């Protein structure tokens, strides 16, 4: 399977080309520069892989939740490539990609992912280790305040890893859940290589969509929806 994956939902700009068992990846943490570096990244990957966009089976999109502008950058580019090359898009949770990364580097059975959502909140997702060590959601992804996460207490201590920059950004959140998670200082941002694994699995399950159906995961609707369109 030939897949191109990328994610710009955080300060990291990450892209990877999967050619069956071969993975070529680019990953840079450069805030507010995604529009300048993503397209050159993709060109480098395609050139190194020796293929053109129509040779791909699908585009794997890191679909958030995350930065509103960042998600729009990736979604627009995924749509453009998919329309031009007549390809499907496979949307993948950016939080799940972080959970997959954490599972690959630990023996934990669960992953509690927290990414900075601004306004004193994080984007939160809780996952268990599933088939092929890929994450399976235990809860809906949500906005979480800097407080105790009740599901973590239910899981108990000792088998939950906590990746994502939100834990470092908000020490009160970390303190409120101390003892229930082990913090991961390495897995801070999603990587496209993990998006490829999730995208391949989703594609085999028939989760591909047409490019015109792409809809980034906005958990904070007041940011995504123009004021004139909001419900009173």
Protein architecture, described:
This protein is of the alpha/beta class and 232 residues long. It folds into 2 domains: 2-93 and 190-229, Nucleotidyltransferase, domain 5 (2-Layer Sandwich), CATH 3.30.420; 95-183, ATPase, nucleotide binding domain (Nucleotidyltransferase, domain 5, 2-Layer Sandwich), CATH 3.30.420.40. Helix content is 34%, strand content 25%. It is built from 8 helices and 11 strands. The protein has helices spanning 34-49, 68-85, 94-104, 150-155, 166-169, 171-176, 192-204, 221-224; strands at residues 2-7, 12-19, 22-29, 58-62, 89-92, 110-116, 122-129, 135-137, 142-144, 160-162, 182-183. The strands form 2 sheets. Strands 6, 7, 8, 9, 10 and 11 form a 6-stranded mixed β-sheet that branches. Strands 3-2-1-4-5 form a 5-stranded mixed β-sheet, sandwiched between helices.
List its traits:
232 residues; alpha/beta; Nucleotidyltransferase, domain 5; 2 domains; 6-stranded mixed β-sheet; 5-stranded mixed β-sheet; 11 strands; disordered C terminus
């Amino acid at each position: 399977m030939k897949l191109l994956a990328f994610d710009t939902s955080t300060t990291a700009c990450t892209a990877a080309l999967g050619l069956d068992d071969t993975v070529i990846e680019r990953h840079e943490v450069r805030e507010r520069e995604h529009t300048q570096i993503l397209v050159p990244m993709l060109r480098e990957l395609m050139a190194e892989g020796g293929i053109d966009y129509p040779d791909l089976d699908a585009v794997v999109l890191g679909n958030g939740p995350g930065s509103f502008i960042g998600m729009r950058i990736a979604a627009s580019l995924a749509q453009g490539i998919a329309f031009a090359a007549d390809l499907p898009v496979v949307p993948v949770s950016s939080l799940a990609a972080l959970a997959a990364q954490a599972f690959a580097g630990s023996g934990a059975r669960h992953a509690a992912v927290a990414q900075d959502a601004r306004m004193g909140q994080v984007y939160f997702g809780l996952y268990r280790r599933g088939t092929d060590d890929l994450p399976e959601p235990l809860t809906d992804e949500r906005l979480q305040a800097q407080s105790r996460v009740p599901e973590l207490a239910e899981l108990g201590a000792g088998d939950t890893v906590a990746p994502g920059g939100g834990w470092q950004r908000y020490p009160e959140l970390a303190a409120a859940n101390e003892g229930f998670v082990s913090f991961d200082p390495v897995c801070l941002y999603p990587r496209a290589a993990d998006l490829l694994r999730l995208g391949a699995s989703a594609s085999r399950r028939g989760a591909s969509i047409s490019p015109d159906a792409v809809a980034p995961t906005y958990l904070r609707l007041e940011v995504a929806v123009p004021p004139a369109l909001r419900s009173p």
